[in-house]
Specification:
The chain is built from 23 helices and 24 strands. The strands form six sheets. Strands 12, 13, 14, 15, 16, 17 and 18 form a seven-stranded antiparallel beta sheet that branches. It has a five-stranded mixed beta sheet with strand order 2-11-10-3-9. It has five domains: 14-79, Orthogonal Bundle (Helix Hairpins), CATH 1.10.287; 102-331, 2-Layer Sandwich (D-amino Acid Aminotransferase, Chain A, domain 1), CATH 3.30.470; 338-439, OB fold (Dihydrolipoamide Acetyltransferase, E2P) (Beta Barrel), CATH 2.40.50.140; 446-599, DNA polymerase, domain 1; 615-683, BRCT domain (Rossmann fold). The longest helix has 24 residues, at 19-42. By secondary structure, the protein is α+β, with helices and mostly antiparallel strands.
Length: 684
């Protein structure tokens, strides 16, 4: 039976089939589903209607359910997602997944080409030029044509097992197509990404649900693909482009161009902007062409990659510790700070403030990709007269906070309607009120956005440090009304936590233990955790140098607060206002009643700490530490941790995918150390 062309979908009941017939039909349906996925997602040439495909898929699900013996881990029905283990396990790569040396300067490209020429016996060297995708690098392994596993790049030697999440991506075949010689073993490298359109929609939904927007499509793809429940990945429209063979057995391929031609025959999606070239002039032309086309592409690219085509020459040129000598990335100059304002959405913060937020087509501003920017308030939007669809100029205020500066007028273009604030809270539907230039939801803690925001802030590493209590978990707890105020967290039983999506017994125990462990906390962290307006970590620490208990802070007068250095009138008034509200005092008392114990903040002793007065800056992703954990580690040893490289910086700690801080450190000749050296520094 063949369901590949004009399939008949008037099936008789599965209970009417013999086991042999059911087995034949199951395999035929799998073959057909894989075939039509390949035509739709890779070739972009569908041969049957969506309705016909859905009927084939549903029939396959019915057969696998009725005849469990025919189930397969690589069946197309497994793409819908499943619950994973509590933690992503580590996998060693078949070959090192090297990073690329990169430059903006054309002279560096010429130096690369000169190096290759000097170390080659050939008079004419052929290169392949490709777009440089701005996504998540991934290794995918096939054995005898069957999907075996997939992993993140990690540190280049070892990555995280994201196999179940990758299976939900329709452009990743679970079985290689047989219209090409199938190798007995194949490890390929690809870039997982989120198209611009889906990225904008994802950020819009996140902001409207009170969540932080992703900074750029790469961060979004990385965050999605590392989810512990692949059901949260299946509907996110992730895509992949394959671009390199890491290892192959059972097939003979001599050049990179041959590999790129072979990939589609196996069902592996490639980008068709790849070209051959053999001169610096052609590299320049390709770089210029792709820079002009990047705005029209459906996905983000940030440059081009130049690779030696011949595998034997690659072997001859060899590799450095972290990068190949046979490839180089020629990055584009940062985008001009003009982009399209895709939409304006209203975000409800944990204090109830309604803030209009501009969702932007991602744009590079000062070396940072910006995809959203605050519009502050309604009057600011009206003053600048920005609307969805407008071209706008963007800058980073103080080189940090993205801000829409002005609209770029386009003669003759029809514009959308002017923006106005909603009459009711977009989250809970409660009436909003205006205070000076700002609007607030009047529902306070009965508004889920505010309660969710307050709990997320309360549980953050810098506050109560409740590991495992992330945004999605908090939303579930609030939406199911398992937590109606912060103190309810401490009343949750392991049995209740087990009902949450994405939780198994190990993760339940870990979260429950983390919540209970947070009952003992320093006063400065507790003050910060309460979410008092204008009270950040620094001010909280200043207050605890003056007051020993939460009761002392609760009773202090406005006049006494104003006398404290670095506590201005606005901060002082905010503290007094917070503790004057009965609701806040009751919430505080409820926390103390469930056993939260607030201890005095210890005073740092000068002169006895090994890293006293040293200043650290961190860039890139460390394997064993989060950014906050690494900063806390050096602070405990007397050091300072800042976000900017300056003349006062003593060390720059470098992790995976470092940013511009590494370049700045090299310019200033500041000591650069990697994670293994950093650990030695901490423990010496």
């Amino acid at each position: 039976m063949d369901f590949k062309k004009n399939p008949k979908t008037n099936f008789k009941g599965v209970d009417k089939l013999s086991e042999d017939k059911a087995g034949e039909q199951t395999q035929a349906l799998r073959d057909a589903t894989d075939h039509h996925d390949y035509l739709y997602y890779v070739k972009n040439q569908p041969q049957i209607s969506d309705a016909a495909y859905d009927k084939l898929f549903k029939r396959l699900q019915e057969l696998e359910e009725f005849f469990p013996k025919f189930q397969s881990k690589n069946s197309p029905t497994k793409r819908v997602g499943t619950k994973l283990a509590d933690k992503l396990k580590k996998l060693k790569h078949t070959q090192p997944m090297l990073s690329l040396n990169a430059a903006l300067d054309e002279k560096r490209i010429k130096s690369f080409a000169d190096f290759v020429a000097r170390n080659s016996n050939s008079q004419k060297i052929e290169y392949i030029v490709e777009p440089k995708f701005d996504g998540l690098s991934t290794e995918i392994v096939y054995e005898n044509g069957e999907f075996k596993y997939g992993a993140t790049r990690g540190d280049g030697q070892t990555g995280e097992d994201i196999s179940e999440n990758l299976k939900t991506i329709r452009t990743i075949p679970l079985h290689l197509q047989s219209n090409g010689e199938i190798p007995s073993f194949l490890a390929v490298r690809g870039e997982v990404f989120l198209a611009k359109e889906h990225f904008t929609n994802l950020n819009k939904n996140r902001i409207q649900n009170g969540q932080e927007a992703f900074a750029n499509p790469r961060n979004a793809a990385a965050g999605i693909v590392r989810q512990l429940d692949s059901r949260n990945v299946a509907d996110k429209h992730l895509d992949i482009i394959f671009y390199e063979i890491l290892q192959a057995k059972g097939c003979k391929i001599n050049t990179h161009w041959e590999a790129l031609q072979q990939f589609p025959k196996w069902g592996l999606k490639i980008d068709f902007h790849n070209e051959k070239c053999s001169s610096l002039k052609k590299m320049q032309d390709y770089h210029e062409k792709m820079a002009k086309q990047r705005e029209q592409l459906k996905y983000e690219i940030d440059g081009i990659v130049i690779k030696v085509n011949d595998y034997e020459l690659r072997e001859q040129l060899g590799t450095r510790q972290r990068s190949p000598r046979w490839a180089f990335a020629w990055k584009f100059a940062p985008k001009v700070e003009i982009t399209t304002l895709e939409d304006i959405v209203v975000q409800v913060g944990r204090t109830g403030m309604l803030t209009p937020v501009a969702l932007l087509e991602p744009v590079d501003v000062g070396g940072v990709t910006v995809s959203r920017a605050t519009l502050h308030n309604e009057s600011e939007v009206k003053k600048k007269d920005v609307r969805p669809g407008d071209r706008v100029r963007v800058q980073r205020a103080g080189d940090v906070i993205p801000e829409v500066m002005e609209r770029i007028k386009e003669r003759g273009k029809k514009r959308s309607k002017p923006f106005s604030m909603p009459k009711k809270c977009p989250i809970c539907g409660t009436e909003i009120y205006k205070e000076r230039a700002y609007y607030f939801c009047s529902a306070t803690l009965s508004c889920k956005a505010q309660l969710v925001g307050r709990i997320i802030h309360y549980a953050s590493r810098e506050a109560m440090n409740i590991e495992g209590l992330g945004n999605e978990t908090v939303k579930q707890l609030v939406n199911r009304e398992m937590v109606k105020e912060i103190a309810d967290l401490y009343k949750l039983s392991p049995q209740e936590l087990e009902t949450l999506e994405g939780f198994a017994s190990k993760s339940v125990k870990k979260l429950h233990d983390a919540i209970q462990k947070s009952k003992t906390v320093r006063l400065d962290k507790f003050l910060y955790a309460l979410g008092i307006r204008h009270i950040g970590q620094h001010v909280a620490h200043i207050l605890t140098q003056r007051f020993e208990t939460i009761n002392d802070v609760q009773k202090v007068s406005l006049q006494d607060l104003k006398k404290i250095c670095e506590v201005g009138p606005e901060i002082a008034q905010s503290i007094v206002n917070f503790f004057e509200q009965k609701e806040n005092c009751q919430a505080l008392q409820n926390l103390l009643d469930v056993g939260v114990k607030v201890e005095k903040t210890p005073t740092k002793k000068k002169g006895n700490l090994p890293l006293e007065n040293k200043t650290f800056v961190f860039t890139g992703q460390l394997e064993k530490y989060t950014r906050s954990q690494a900063q806390d580690s050096v602070k405990k040893l007397g050091a300072n941790a800042t976000s900017t490289v300056s003349g006062n910086t003593d060390y720059v700690i470098v992790g995976d995918n470092p940013g511009s801080k590494l370049d700045e450190a090299k310019k200033r000749n500041i000591k650069i150390i990697y994670e293994n050296e950093f650990e030695k520094l901490l423990h010496n």
